[in-house]
Amino acid sequence: MKVIAIEEHFWSREFADKFSGPSADRSPALMRQLEDYSELRLKDMDAAGIDVQVISHAPPGGQRLLSETAVDACWKVNDLLATIIARAPNRFAGFATLPQAHSAEAANELQRCVEELGFKGAMMFGVTNNTFLDEKVYWPIYERAAKLKVPIYLHPSMPHPTVQDIYYATYAKSHPALLGAAWGFGVETGTLGIRMILSGVFREFPELQVILGHLGEGITFQLDRIDEALSRPGNAPCDFANTFRSNFHITTSGFFSNSALSFCIEEMGKDRVLFAVDWPFVSNAQGVDWLTAFPTDQETKEQIFSGNAKRLLSL
C-alpha cells in the first residue's frame, strides 16, 4: 500500500541564521540527514518503504525569526523547499514556513506557497512574541488557510523561558528531554490546541483544519474529561469534543504505540489519523514497521498510511 509521511523535516543554515536566540545542539549525523535534500533522504525512504514525504523546516521555525528579516527569510526558505520538491516531485510535497509575527504577510505567503509553489498547507510553531497562536492577531492566517482549503500543522516548540525556569529547571541538566519530547513539547502544543478551540476561531472559520502530531499532543487521551469540565456551569459554551473531532487531525509522529493508536482511532475515527514519522529525529523504518504490524483491518491501515493524507492534502 502507498505510504505518505507528513511530519518530515529539512534544515537551511541561511534560514537558521535569522533566528533570535540559540538553536538546538544537534549531532553531525542528524544535521547530515537534515541538510541532504535528496540522496540520503530518498535512500532512507526507499529502505523503509515510504513513497512520499511532506517536508517542512525543522524547529525552531517562524516564531523565532528576527522581526525585520522574517518575511524575506520565509520567502527564501519556501523557495528552497520548492526546489527540493522539484528534484523528485512524485516523492516530495511541502508545508510552508510563515513569518508568524507578521500575520498579514504570513497569510499572503501561505497563499503564494499554495497557489504558486503547490504546497499543501503550513507548519506553525509555538509562542510568538510571548503570545499563543490562538490570539486574534493570528486569525488572518487561519482565515486564508480556510479559504485556500489547506490545513495548518501546529508543531511543538520549547516552553517559554519563564515556564522552563518554574516547571523544569530542577531537571533540565540531568534530563534535558523533559523540556522537549518527553513532556514540555506536548504540554505546550496541547495547551495551544485547547486554546484554539476556546478562542472561537473554528466558529469564525468552520472549514479550518488543524493537524496535531504525536497522537494529538495529549488532548485525545483527555478529550472526554476536558469536554465534561468545560461543560460545567460557569464556562462559556465551546462544544469542545465535537469541535476537536471535526476540525483537528492527528498524526503518529514519534508515537508508535499500539494501545495509544487504538484509543485514538476509537476517539477520533480512522479518518482523522494520519501517518507521520518525524524524520530524521525518529527512524523511518521504525514507524513503517510498527504501523505495518499494527493489529487492524486493511482498510483502516490504508487510510492511516495514505488515504487520509491524500484527502486532506489533495495529494
Describe this structure in words.
The chain is α/β, with parallel strands linked by helices. The chain has one domain (4-313): TIM Barrel. It contains 14 helices and nine strands. It has helices at 13-16, 28-35, 39-48, 70-87, 103-115, 139-148, 161-168, 184-199, 201-204, 223-230, 240-247, 258-268, 284-293, 298-313; strands at 4-10, 52-57, 92-94, 96-97, 122-125, 152-155, 210-212, 248-251, 273-274. The strands form two sheets. It has a six-stranded parallel beta sheet. Strands 1-2-3 form a three-stranded parallel beta sheet. Helix 3 (39-48) runs parallel beside helix 13, helix 4 packs parallel to helix 5 (103-115) and helix 5 (103-115) runs parallel beside helix 6. The mean pLDDT is 96.
Beta-strand content estimate: 5-15%
Percent helix range: 40-55%
Cα-based radius of gyration, to the nearest Å: 18 Å
Question: What's the overall geometry?
Answer: globular
Total strands: the figure is: 9
Q: CATH homologous superfamily?
A: Metal-dependent hydrolases
Average residue-wise pLDDT: 96
Q: In the CATH classification, which architecture applies?
A: Alpha-Beta Barrel
Give the H and E element order.
EHHHEHEEHEHEHHHEHHEHEHH
The major sheet is characterized as: 6 strands, parallel
Q: Numbering strands along the chain, what is their spatial order in the largest sheet? A: 4-5-6-7-8-9
Summarize this entry quickly.
This protein is an alpha/beta fold. The chain has 14 helices and nine strands.
Task: Summarize this structure as a short list of keywords or feature phrases.
315 residues; alpha/beta; TIM Barrel; 6-stranded parallel beta sheet
